[in-house]
Write a structure and sequence with these properties.
Length: 155
């Protein structure tokens, strides 16, 4: 797993996040959309964005799934609207607990697939809890990482 991020990556992430929040989400609010979004571009790490309370609830749902006999779950995301400056909105997030090495990828049917070890699943759940409005966390995995952004004024 990658453990560091360059200042250039952080600045690029902040630029895209600022553009998205100020240009695209007001339109989503007008449409009445109030679900998680997963933004993807081949040149960017995917970003999951939702309110802090919704991300915290998702963390709890993932932990509940992990504690059950079911080792797989799907969490749909909204796909309406323009994803700019990203290329597309993904259909959702699929999480599978694996005994092997973690892997994060975009599926052919346009879902974010996370195959995570128990340790990385715990990290995901921890990172889904964003303590400050407008802040973001990173889940560092291979071959791509995941940005988790919270904005309580989205909807």
């Amino acid at each position: 797993m990658q453990l560091t991020t360059s200042h250039a990556q952080e600045a690029n992430c902040a630029h895209f996040t600022t553009y998205w929040l100020h240009s695209v989400f007001p339109m989503m609010q007008a449409l009445g959309e109030d679900a998680m979004r997963i933004l993807y571009s081949a040149k960017q790490d995917p970003m999951v964005i939702d309110t802090r309370s919704a991300l915290t609830e998702l963390s709890e749902r993932v932990r509940t799934m992990a504690a059950s006999a079911n080792q797989f779950a799907e969490y749909p995301a909204a796909v309406s609207g323009r994803p700019a400056p990203y290329d597309e909105l993904l259909k959702g997030m699929r999480i599978k607990i694996t005994q092997g090495q973690s892997n994060v990828e975009i599926s052919r049917d346009r879902w974010l697939n996370l195959e995570l070890s128990c340790g990385d699943l715990d990290k995901l759940c921890d990172n889904l809890i964003v303590n400050e409005d407008g802040a973001h966390n990173h889940l560092y995995t291979t071959p791509i990482s995941l940005i988790i952004e919270a904005d309580d004024n989205l909807f």
